[in-house]
Amino acid sequence: MTLTNYGLLTILLLGLELLYIRLARHFRLFDVPNGRSLHQTTRTVRGGGIIVYLAVLTMVLSVPFNQPWFFGGLTVVVLISFGDDVAGIPVRFRFFAQSIAISMLLIQTHTSSTDWWLFLGLLVLGVAIINAYNFMDGINGMTAFYSLLTIGTLWYLQRDEMDSRSPILYPFVFVALLVFSFFNARPKAICFAGDVGSIGIGFIMLYNLLTVINEQHTYLPLLLLAVYGADSLLTIVYRIHRRQNIFRAHQSHLYQLLISQRGWPHLGVAAGYAFMQAGINGLVLRALDWSAVHQFMLAVLISGFLSICYVITRKKIISPQKEAIL
Length: 326
Known about the structure:
70% of the residues lie in helices and 0% in strands.
């Protein structure tokens, strides 16, 4: 893409986002604070992350992109997620639709297997990843900063893969994320990503991750989601240990506690998560040429480091009395 194309794409997506915000306000599609919300405003537009799907749709209509299973799966999760943002959809229906979408994604990336148990395992893992990405969308700037960093790193990894379809996708998604960041990454957000945004972005991220894994013949790129993964997985373990419903809205994630218990600013916490992930991304880039044993050791060290940081930080910011309430 030329500089002119980038400029035109930015203007187009900025206009589409402004149009969506205006329509959302007209139809009163505002974010309603729930059990996991850390804001009190009821006038912030929900679903602003739909701009990422509109960017992909623009790409499909304007340049050659023969990845129908991927686009079909993305459309499925975006439609079901937008429906949930607007009116609420039972969990079982959302999981069913997400399972269909992940199945299409596995077919598109040639990750599907003739062994039913392996396919089922990949399916469950894929659904878990996109929902974990949604769980982490709880504060201003978090999805924006983290997604820009991850997409940027994946784009760098595939910059020379001329035979891959993924590089065509990156400019459109990256510009869309920049536009979304303009409206979201501020002390008082104009719009939130909503499920349509965070799950849609998570689906795109998973597609690109699987593509890179297949091209690099290593699972090390999964560490590009290490910080998100550590917070999500360890929080789930914590809630299961306390016999809590993991599907119920809550404020138990570490990033939520840093804000609710310590009073840290939203953008500061979001930037901190992105900064820590940036350091891990740098290690991943350096380690792609290492042997499988050394890559495994690096993965163990990073996972252990993040787990220790999570446990220590959690204990420091929560008193035993507050822990009993949480």
